[in-house]
Specification:
The structure is a single chain. This protein has 334 residues and is an alpha/beta fold. Helix content is 37%, strand content 17%. It has 11 helices and 10 strands. The strands form 2 sheets. The chain has an 8-stranded mixed β-sheet, with helices on both faces. It has a two-stranded antiparallel sheet with strand order 3-10. Helix 10 links the parallel strand 8 and strand 9. Helix 2 runs parallel beside helix 3, helix 3 crosses helix 11 and helix 4 crosses helix 5. The protein is globular. The termini are far apart.
Length: 334
């Protein structure tokens, strides 16, 4: 009975991540922030603030991290909600598991700032971060040795996955080669009018409904735009998927998003890329963010950490720094 009660509590909490036609926008954003934010960050993680590309960002630094590894986390929230404050706790856990700094951009939200505002903000953050990490690596490299390229991880959840893929599709190979992993939690991959989740009269799971996607998409962009890959990543041309970074998709078995994730993973593999789809039995949308109720949440993030930190063929040994070592980048404590 205790497990069942915990599951119900988890579902109630996770439903606050969703925005539908009956939602009040200000109330949705406020409840989401109140529910998922925390005063004290877990695992001894420290937070600083910095502007990348003129976009306000949180930088979360765990007690131990690889000086060369950094993650950009693109949060979900149905394109209309979510913030640095909302995702600090969750991303602090990711930072600790992945032994890396995590950057959370405060990108612009719909409907006040529709597509492509969020994509433009994330592109600006990536370009700025990439340049600074390259300079930092050069300054900290001994004479006569080749500076290490930065190891960048792109991570996202829900609607943030659409924004993340839009970024990746438009990156030159020079930039893509520095992305060691793409990590997607319960990704939104197909918002086209003829997709299953948009066209079905009645479709839902324990957390999501068809109305959530329809309302979110209509606030984010015109219906015609949902047919392009920058909004619906699964509709990408094969050329956009070539040399896509190794991808890890994690989600719950009971999500209405599973079929799209399977189809996207298949496309990535068919175009010569690496993709692992990690589906958790009995779990719901974004179960990883209900760790106070679900033991599986902790195990799932453990697995993400192992994926990100595992050695790759020919990779050099990573150097682990003790916190705070933010001087390895060019920013300072807020």
């Amino acid at each position: 009975m205790e497990i069942q009660n915990d599951r119900k509590a988890a579902i109630r909490k996770l439903r606050l991540l969703t925005y539908n036609s009956k939602s009040n926008l200000d109330s949705f954003r406020q409840k989401m922030e109140e529910t998922f934010s925390t005063v004290f960050l877990p695992n001894g993680v420290e937070r600083s603030e910095y502007k990348y590309g003129n976009v306000d960002c949180d930088i979360l630094s765990p007690e131990m991290y690889s000086s060369n590894r950094i993650m950009i986390y693109i949060h979900g929230g149905c394109f209309s909600g979510g913030s640095r404050k909302t995702y600090r706790a969750f991303c602090s856990s990711l930072a600790s598991k992945c032994y890396c700094r995590v950057v959370i951009p405060e990108f612009r939200l719909s409907p006040a700032y529709p597509c492509p505002a969020a994509i433009e903000d994330i592109q600006a953050v990536f370009r700025s971060l990439f340049t600074e990490e390259q300079i930092s690596a050069s300054l900290n490299t001994e004479k006569g040795t080749t500076p290490k390229l930065p190891e960048i991880i792109i991570a996202a959840d829900g609607s943030g996955a659409s924004i993340a893929c839009a970024l990746l599709y438009n990156l030159r190979d020079r930039y893509r080669s520095c992305i060691s992993h793409v990590v997607l939690f319960s990704p939104w991959l197909n918002l086209a009018p003829d997709s299953k989740i948009m066209s079905a009269k009645k479709i839902s799971d324990e957390v999501l409904t068809g109305d959530v996607f329809k309302k979110s998409a209509s606030d984010y962009t015109y219906a015609e735009n949902t047919k392009i890959s920058s909004v619906s990543p699964i509709l990408a041309e094969d050329s956009q998927l070539e040399h896509f970074p190794p991808t890890f998709i994690q989600m719950g078995e009971k999500e209405i998003l599973v079929d799209d994730a399977k189809a996207f993973a298949k496309r990535l593999i068919e175009t010569g890329n690496k993709c692992e789809l990690d589906i958790w039995s009995g779990m719901m949308f974004m179960f990883q963010m209900a760790d106070e109720y679900l033991h599986e949440s902790h195990l799932a993030l453990d697995k993400v950490g192992k994926i990100v930190t595992q050695d790759t063929a020919g990779a050099e040994t990573v150097e682990i720094e003790n916190k705070p070592k933010l001087e390895h980048s060019l920013h300072s404590e807020a």
